[in-house]
Amino acid sequence: MGCIDVSKYEYLGHGKNGKVYLMPDGKAIKICKREDRCLEEYKVLKMASGSDYFPKVYERKGKIMIREYVEGDDLNTYIKKYGLSKRLVLNLVGMIEEFKRLGFKRLDMRGVHIYVIKDEKIKVIDPSMQLIKTVKYPELMIRDLKNLGVINKFYNILKEERSDLYKKWKN
Fold first, then answer.
1. Residue 64 CB: number of other CB atoms within 10 A?
2. Which residue ranges make up each domain of the chain?
């Protein structure tokens, strides 16, 4: 990766860690503010390689990372538009279980970093702190669901489908 002129790319958005653009080849390029955060996110995406819950990552150099583009709405926007279904709840549970299977310390993700794609499958677009910060249940995701007014529906589905997690996450 040489010098990159992002003026030719479609701006997709930004967060605390950097700005993301859509490249002409359909991949996403992220220009991070800090190299250490870029490296950490790259490591997480490499660890998650092959997982349905994460985009493919192609390369990283310094503060620049190229990964698969994820089309869809973030969880919060999606729920505001379409509501919360049983399928979506089970996919969110699957995502948290995937975090555990991959050996992540942080079993949580904010709704703005969870993208709902075709068939209510989900992809995590900005996995940061998964290897550093220890969080044993999805407290930020649950807070987002509470703020969206769908927490009771979430818990009812969880109680019915996964009573083991309901007991852990309800408290």
1. 17
2. 6-68, 73-170
Cα separation values, 93 from 10, 107, 164, Å? 32, 10, 12
CATH architecture of 6-68: 2-Layer Sandwich (3.30)
Does this model's pTM top 0.90? My answer is: yes
Q: Are 137 and 106 in contact (CB under 8 A)?
A: no
* pLDDT tens over the chain, length 171 residues: 656 788 889 999 988 889 999 999 999 999 999 999 999 999 999 999 999 999 999 999 999 999 999 999 999 999 999 999 999 999 999 999 999 999 999 999 999 999 999 999 999 998 877 888 888 999 999 999 999 999 999 999 999 999 999 999 987
* Burial per residue of 14-40, b for 16 or more beta-carbon CB atoms within 10 angstroms, e otherwise: ebebbbbbeeeeebbbbbbeeeebbeb
